[in-house]
Structures are given as C-alpha cells and as structure tokens.
Specification:
The chain is an alpha/beta fold. It is built from nine helices and nine strands.
C-alpha cells in the first residue's frame, strides 16, 4: 500500500494506472494522478491531530483553487468545503474548526474517507479502514466504499478482517510472507480456505485440501 501511495521506495518493477507509472512519484503526485489513499494508521499517516477538521479536509488540495488565491488561503472556501463534507459523510463533531483529535476515532476516520473520496479518485486504496471502529461507523464506511466502486472507481481493499473482505470484495487475493498465495472470485472463496492461506501459505492449504 505504501509503495502504491508513493510513501515507500520501490526497488523494481512498475505500478501502472491508466498507463501511467506511479513509481518514483511523491505521495502528492500520486494523489494528483488519481489515487485516493486511506492509510492503515490514521493517526500517523491520515490526519494531523493539531489541525482543525477543516484543514485536514484540504490536506492534499490546499494549494488549489478555490482554497488559495494569489498564495493567500481562502478561509471561506475551506470552511464551506468542510461543512459540505461533514454533512455528507456524517462526521459527528462540535464544529469544523475544532482539532481533528477532538471527535472519536470513527469520526476521524470519516474525515479521512471524506477527504479521499471527495477527490473522485480512479483508484481508491484502503488499508484496514474500519479497525477499532463501532458498528455504525463500519457500516457507513462500507457503504461509501461500495458507492465508489459502483461509480466506476477501482478499489484495492487491504484487510485482515474476513467478514469485511467477504462483504466488500469482488475478487480476493491472499498475501503470505510478502507474496500472493491465492486469488479467487468471491463466489469461489471460502473463509476456511482464505484463513488457512493467510496463516500458513499455499503449500499448507494444498495439503489440507488433498487430505
């Protein structure tokens, strides 16, 4: 995920999106090329705790119109944008100008989801998007991810939660020790097979099926 998002150097190969290679570009450049990224660690990589909700919602677009004009921040445009997204994504907060650390973890995650999805990415990369969240927040975020898929975006979901994978995925790839050890259409996958591949790899799964 970090390699795709431009956060980690790539030692070889290419990552192609609509014919453009993402390798060697900064996270901002990767975003501008059409990639939305919901990171696994929201506090470390998703938000700036001391910034307001409004500022966090323009972290990757603050240098663009209408949020800046002649190098001067346009606070009215930033606030209007924040109010719209807070309402659309049901962010429960006392206001858009409180620190993003003020709301609950689920609402912080909604801020990240709102920021990344509102840019209409052609590829949405989401890593552990609902870890540690309440049921209501999980269902809301799942609906938004499905809406993006239905609108034509490609979605790469990385999750260790089998229920989440089987609820959202059309195809399932299983990683073990850095490699893909299985790939299935959702209709052909079972929790037992996927779980065994996750825990033990391809050889152990083949052995279990044979026995």
């Amino acid at each position: 995920v970090e390699a795709i998002a431009g956060m980690r150097p790539v030692s070889g190969g290419a990552i192609l999106l609509d014919g453009d290679d993402l390798v060697g570009h900064s996270p901002r450049q990767v975003h501008d090329m059409g990639v939305g990224h919901v990171p696994e660690d929201r506090n470390k990589h998703g938000v700036v705790d001391s910034f307001t909700i409004a500022d966090n919602l323009v972290l990757n677009t603050y240098g663009r119109s209408p949020f800046v004009r002649r190098r001067i921040r346009q606070l009215g445009a930033i606030d209007a944008h924040a109010r719209e997204l807070v309402e659309r994504y049901d962010v429960r907060t006392p206001g858009i100008n409180v620190p993003v650390s003020n709301p609950s973890g689920g609402n912080q995650q909604k801020v990240i989801i709102a920021r990344e999805l509102s840019g209409d990415p052609s590829l949405l990369v989401v890593a552990q998007p609902t870890r540690g969240l309440d049921v209501g927040s999980i269902e809301f975020i799942h609906r938004r991810i499905v809406e993006m898929r239905d609108a034509g975006a490609a979605v790469l979901l990385v999750s260790a939660e089998l229920d989440e994978i089987f609820t959202l995925a059309d195809r399932i790839g299983v990683l073990f020790r850095g490699g893909i050890v299985g790939e299935f259409d959702r209709a052909d996958a079972t929790r037992s097979t996927v779980g065994l591949l996750m825990a033990s790899g391809r050889a152990a799964a083949d052995e279990a099926v044979a026995s």
